[in-house]
Amino acid sequence: MTPLRVGIVGIGWWSNVLAETMQASDKLDLRAGYTRSAEKRAEFAGKFGCDAVDSYEALLARDDLNAVILTTPNSAHREGTEQAAKAGKHVFVEKPISNSLEDGRAMIEACDAAGVTLAVGHCYRRNGALRHMRHMIDTGELGRISMAEAFFGNDNGMKMKPGVWRTDPAEIPGGCLMQLGIHQIDNMLYLMGPVSEVSAYFNRLETEPEIEDVTAVLLRFESGSVGFVGSNYCSPLRFDLVTHGTKGNAFFELNTDGLRVQKTGELERKPVDYPPIDHLTAELEDFADAIAEGRPPEIGGREALAPLAIVLAAGRSSAEGRSVKLSELLPDA
Q: In the chain, what are the domain boundaries?
């Protein structure tokens, strides 16, 4: 397989993480990077052995690139995707697909019209433990799943200062839920299926910028099961997910990369072996494989609309003090 030749746009700490992932894969070849800061792009190019390009237009004009990775602010995703599609480049954009469903749909339409692939970076569902949890659900080992609960929080909000895009409510509607909790929302969709109704509470307790730093979301799934997703910006790092079934409960903790199961009639949570998967490698290689094989990626634009809609529905629920049916935002779901 010829490696996918990639340019990355929006150089920051996360682009470095993805660049390191690409360097370890034989399916992706990082050729160029662009950001507005000449100093940052030169440093990135030196670190990863790629070219520093002085404009996005120049990057898109390169014949040796067939894909771009966008790690830009959420509000820039639509324009960056539309430009890339027009130039005939495949697009991988970090989650969320955008800040609005209108922009997300426009991105899908642009890529469809150009005949290029659009993939969105919802990575955590690819963790080996969550893949195995899904296997246990599919095979009936856990029985019927009645409830799931998940949390993703860290204390980054305690260090946030106004003036950068991650602290701007217009850039990050939903605050910590849009940046952190949306990962667990996607995991819930992966494990539990479609969501029909959302109810939520948002608040700001500790952050200096005017951005939500604590959120709690209740989900009603089309299956009849229910779920909870919590996130915040003002407590130590925590990422875990639990599913409750008629034959057992499964517990996943990212910090320990552990999966434990408590079977019905038992009190002990016993460790479970599963094949390890590097979730970042898996998502980027799925992007490359999808292009090579002419198939959709696991998380394309249409799949990425659902977690975004749930975040937006949660914001509406908190603001209006009512449950919100997802069909209000995604009538064609």
A: 4-123+281-297, 124-277+309-328
